[in-house]
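Bug #77: duplicate submission created two jobs. Keeping one. Sequence:
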Amino acid sequence: MQSHIVILGCGFGGLFAAKALAGAPVRVTVIDRANHHLFQPLLYQVATAGLSAPAIAAPIRQILEHQKNATVFMADVEGIDTSRRAVLLDGAEEVAYDYLIVATGATHSYFGHPEWERDAPGLKTLDDAFEIRRRILLAYERAERETDAVKRAGWLTFVVIGAGPTGVEMAGTLAEIARHTLRGEFRRFDSRQARVILVEGTPGVLSTYPPDLSAKAKRQLERLGVTVRINARVTGIDADGIMIGDERLAAKTVVWAAGVAASPLGKSLGVELDRAGRVPVGADLSLAAHPEVFVIGDLAAATSDGKPVPGISPAAKQMGRYAARCILHRIGKNASAPFPPFRYIDYGQLATIGRNAAVAMIGKLRFSGYPAWLLWLFAHIYFLIGFRNRVVVLFDWALAYWSFERNARIVVGTKDGR
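Kept job's structure:
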């Protein structure tokens, strides 16, 4: 009887694990709460009206259509019973497994202040992107109707909390929208009056990058018109602004990009989690007490050559492929032979800041500006899922580059739910 491999989550880790099992003599069940795989590195482009949702997402069933050993379930996973080797789904349904790959990723972390989420949404899903886009576009609409200059300034102030790649990309794009995309469209104010403020609690932006690239990224942001506040700790957030220490900053639109927490599903595995809620795994990415359970991606606290594996998409892809190969080895003819431990290969890091502005680090090479931006652009197009998506994104970016237009500026749901 064929082994049944269940994969929870179809992000980069889950998808690449599933594809690595194509053609193998196993049954594969992929379970995800959404019906699509999302190219998360470009999610901010949907949030800022640069791309439409289908350009960065593809139906999971379509991706795995020709993989005959794979079945796809759209369902919420409520828990994992490792003693019975069963995944508990909504509706009291259970799915038994021989091997389990948990790739449910991460969610937002508000550092003990969950109440901030209402007024400072994070960016992890398409729903998040739609909500942030709605708030951004409605802020300009409210500013056009506002006659009081002080209140209008609040609508035209946009704060991004967290200067990692997502925060930097979001802040740079918001500045370009104000200074180029919306220029001349409003009659009661000039969109270039909008303020974009990037708030970071550490001494610099893109803290995982070398100090020289971090400094260059900060300068590029400032050239775009972004006000960068470093060493600034947020102490409060509400519908009208934020508190930085004892300082009050009026802003109607706040985006959270400051922290992530591992998926809460890790708690059901019955192991002690690390401070970020991640699941400690062994050298083969499995659990010591349950070697048939593999944890990959943002949920895994994994090491490679003694160093922590970063929570980025290339690492998730590599972990997904590795977990699949490890399982196939265990059920193969040479199962008794040792299997090499997981080794993460660092192909470099890229972060875009805005038009013709980016930073890149590939091995010992470090560069910024236009060359880094070109590399970022073509790398992201190359790694998109599906030929159609690559063509659509390339066309939209080319049009936006020459015209500064953003054609996905559609607001659905004009009531303020905050």
